[in-house]
UniProtKB/TrEMBL annotation:
The protein's required cofactors: Mg(2+)
Protein name according to UniProt: Hydroxyethylthiazole kinase
Gene responsible for this protein: thiM
Domain of life according to the entry: Bacteria
Coiled coil (UniProt feature): none
Species name: Clostridium algidicarnis
Length: 271
């Protein structure tokens, strides 16, 4: 994973985002911190031109509207045409019928390199009825052995059906290409108190996707980088520090991330 970081920073890929307005600034800053170059262009009149010069495309449906849906489809199809990798963050899929419909439309019309979501979102897209709390997951990846195996099997089956990488993030992260499956045990529970940590993780995956051709490695690198940053951010909090300081510390941790830190702190297990 560490070598991917060096490769990313050497290339400084342009990462085109069509993302939500709640976390757009955080996504831009985390992309810059990892060493990539963000652009946040969502107007239908320029998305094809913008994605044509990008190294990867990040699609995030956090703040849905008709205008950006059209831009997402247009940009995604152009990216496919040019063999530019696309990562989808199906924020809140399952919360409303419209949101679920659009997430599935994107899956049907665009070839996705990676789908990163929480367990509720992934279950919804897979076809299992579940609940969400706004855009937050109600489901969590259980430590119960049988439940954990079921979740891994779901992820692998979904990855095979779509021929894509499925990344389920939570207390424990699961990443699979349908053949190989990994769990990651980095991160800190306080990250759930900061809006946008999932969106930032998707931006990190998009950054790694833009620097190489191994989509599984990119997803693993993005998720483990975010988890390590969350741990380091919490460790750096002083007595007066809270969720605002944690977010700032996460960006700083990504900026200072190194190959050595990833090798030393990364908790990636092949199952």
């Amino acid at each position: 994973m560490g070598k991917l970081l060096s490769k990313l920073r050497g290339k400084s890929p342009l990462v085109h985002h069509i993302t939500n307005y709640v976390t757009v600034n955080d996504c831009a800053n985390i992309t810059l911190a990892i060493g990539a170059s963000p652009v946040m262009a969502d107007d239908i009149n320029e998305v094809e031109d913008m994605v044509s010069i990008a190294s990867s495309l990040v699609l995030n449906i956090g703040t849905l509207n008709n205008r950006t849906v059209e831009s997402i489809i247009l940009a995604g199809k152009k990216a496919n045409e040019l063999n530019i990798p696309v990562v989808l963050d199906p924020v809140g899929a399952g919360a409303t019928p419209y949101r679920t419909k659009i997430a599935k439309k994107i899956m049907e019309e665009i070839k996705l390199s990676v789908i990163r979501g929480n367990l509720s979102e992934i279950k919804t897209l897979y076809g299992i009825k579940t609940q969400t709390k706004g855009v937050d997951s109600v489901d969590s990846i259980s430590s119960n052995k049988n439940d954990f195996i079921k979740t891994k099997n779901l992820a692998m089956d979904f990855a095979n059906k779509l021929d894509t990488i499925i990344a389920i993030t939570g207390e424990v992260d699961i990443i699979t290409d349908g053949k190989h499956i990994y769990s990651i045990k980095n991160g800190h529970e306080m990250m759930s108190k900061v809006t946008g940590t999932g969106c930032m993780c998707t931006s990190l995956i998009g950054s790694y996707l833009g620097s190489g051709k191994d989509n599984l490695a990119a997803a693993l690198a993005g998720v483990v980088s975010m988890g390590i940053a969350g741990e380091m951010a919490f460790e750096r909090l002083d007595k007066c520090g809270g969720s605002g300081s944690l977010k700032t510390n996460i960006v700083d941790a990504i900026y200072n991330l190194s190959e050595e830190v990833i090798v030393k702190r990364g908790k990636i297990y092949e199952d």
